[in-house]
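To: structure desk
From: M.T.
Subject: fold request, one chain
Message: Could you run this one when you get a chance? Sequence is below, nothing fancy, just the single chain.
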Amino acid sequence: MFGGGMPELPAENYLNKRNIPRMDFLVLFLFYLAFMLIGVVTICICSKTHCLKGLVRRGAQIFSYIIPECLRRAMLRFLHYLFHTRNHTFVILHLILQGMVYTEYTWEIFGLCQELEFSLNYLFLPYLLLIVNLVFFALSCETNPGTITKANELLFLQVYEFDEGMFPKNMRCSTCDLRKPARSKHCSVCNRCVHRFDHHCVWVNNCIGAWNIRYFLFYLLTLTASAATMAVVSTVFLVQLVMVSDLYLETYVDDFGHLQVVDTVFVIQYLFVTFPRIVFLLGFVVVLSFLLGSYLCFCLYLAATNQTTNEWYRDARAWCQHCPHVAWTPSAEPQVYRNIHSRGLWSNLREIFLPAVAHYERKKK
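Reply: Done. Structure tokens follow.
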């Protein structure tokens, strides 16, 4: 009907003779998406409490009786290599996944959308976002996050005031043998102290700190936008396909021999069977857009309130100390974190995108 390699849309013979249960593919696919979302949300919720640590500990105890010790040690070494040493595993995985998604988009969706006379500007938007995303991805990977050394230690000590709570004065890093500026932290993965430490990101194989947080935010924004744009293009393509083919006007014989008008569930199942890779791609980018969008909103909230992920996490742990279900020793007095660094929305954002120390050092050079 559409020429080229376009699969033909359903004929009445297919609709009348089909004997596949209506919900098989759709239910499995929806269960797959629901399982992923529930798992991610559960981990996010439990990570703020001690539930996750308790579950991991009990799970490790159970598996210790099942898995041989030699295999257990090999798994621990592999996990230590993945998450506690600097390596390019997740960087390569990131590029492979991105390449697979864009290959599928180019191989099937782009050509089919051209046959349906989609605007080229609309179709090329994901490629433009990909180029911008790769630029900020490289900057996030390679930019110095704000490593503290003997040479710049005194300079960093003057940037933020100490709150005498989360960041007390006259603290030294036992590993680097440096005085710890306020809002800094020693990264055990990179083995360095980082100014305004946010977190260590395995996907860029680098710490996120004062000097590269702006690149990381743009990287996250463009990655979210590219996934969302691809989801929109794929959805519009499938909807347009159904409209052009008049599939919604067809009828079919159900499992009980009754004549039924094609409904939304049947249309989704048909598209799933006819275009499985496109529908799986759509499901993947929809879930990815949701997860990345949620994380982007969280990062923008932290930027707007002048907090780091490290400070938010430590504050969450202090908040958990008030939980009546958790037993704490008398010496472990809960400390209330006060954000003394927030200076209003625009000042906070200016601090992210124009870090003072980086600007000072560029002028000095």
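Reply (cont.): The chain is about 60% helix and 5% strand. Let me know if you need anything else for the meeting.
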